Amino acid sequence: MLGKKILSSATTEETEQIGRALAEELLQSGKKSAFIALYGDLGVGKTAFTRGFVSAICPAARVKSPTYTVVNEYRGGILPVFHFDMYRIDGEDDLYSTGFYDYLDSGYLLSEWSENIPFALPKERIAVTIEKSGVDTRRITLEAFE
Hints:
Layout: E1 4-9, H1 12-29, E2 34-39, H2 46-57, E3 71-74, E4 81-85, H3 92-97, H4 100-103, E5 108-112, E6 125-132, E7 138-145
Parallel strand pairs: 2-5, 2-6, 4-5
Antiparallel strand pairs: 1-7, 3-4, 6-7
Helix pairs in contact: 1-2
């Protein structure tokens, strides 16, 4: 389906457009659920990517970082979208207490700070790595694992 793509973004809006394009590709493929593992330093655009992704599925949703709530749910669109922030997750017990495993295969799940939960990542997933490539530019790598 996706394979591997390396894209460039110079603005928040472009990062959002890349997220939206991924959501549209998944919808067109007929996939009812997918795990999107987001990687990248603080402030590189993981939430902007998610905002764009969610805009294709739940246009009325107001996307914000789930840093303190751990998960935000966006329902009422084409399919449910679950947005996790794993920044404060320290291990299996922490992850289990969030209800994370109950969300798998229930819609589209985007997980920021996926590097904190390598033990829990599904085999089938899309990895999205966002890196600074200049002062205002980002390199966004999308890679499907199946």
